[in-house]
Amino acid sequence: MSLLGFTVVLGLLLGVWAQHNVLRPLCDSPKAEEAALVAQDYLNGQHTHGYKYALNRIEDIKVQVEPNGQETYVLEIDLLETNCHVLDPTPLANCSVRPKLLTAVEGDCDVVLKRVGGVLTVTAFKCKTEESTEDLCVGCSTLLPLNDTAALDFVQASLAIFNNNTVNVTYTILEVGRMSSQLVSGGPQYLVEYVVVEANCTNDACMPLNDPMAQRGICTAKGFKIAHSVDCKMFAAPMVKSCVSIHHVIFDGQK
Fold this sequence. Notes:
Elements (H helix, E strand, L loop, with lengths): L2 H15 L4 E2 L6 H16 L5 E15 L5 E15 L19 E12 L2 E13 L10 E2 L5 H16 L6 E14 L2 E16 L2 E4 L7 E9 L2 E9 L11 E8 L1
Antiparallel strand pairs: 1-2, 2-3, 3-4, 4-5, 6-7, 7-8, 8-9, 8-10, 10-11, 11-12
Subcellular location: Secreted
GO molecular function: cysteine-type endopeptidase inhibitor activity
Protein name: Putative alpha-2-HS-glycoprotein isoform 3
């Protein structure tokens, strides 16, 4: 929902709340935690790019109960980026939160929910994300924009190493998830993550295979352009949830 739409919703709620009492449950109450988890799952379901987020804490909650028994919640929650890409079938409960030293990203969200017939449903939300910068050391890795030319060259170099070690299949980039760099004695050292998908290649031109069964995975590459390692975790197509198979392929590249 747009910021304008969210503002209109909040404006209407404030008008209603001027006429009714507002409940303020404790942030660690079952009511608050239930609403926060519903919001977390809904927000993750809206993502088609990037990474899954896990609930960190509940900042505030207000609940207005209308005469007909319908409840409206307004939540302020903090979310933390995990290591699981949204295409990764790993359940959120099994995804680890990204450490701050690895350029973690935090999300601050305002969420409006309604409870009708005992079921909580999100009706509006507004989120902003930013890199967590507190407690970072001098010389630590810093996030790079996803259009950084040198880092993208590093992505392509690492993908070439990976493809050179696969048999009867070629992969292409579906999405670059994140890129960071750290200045060391040998120059910038890169750490990149990107999603790959099985490709259809003709005359050296490769396009993502337009098939729901096409193999996908996420790769992590680290090092310098002329010397780096690549670790790819492949997973089955999302539609085959009952037969998920994950394996790791690790290569060291030297040019």
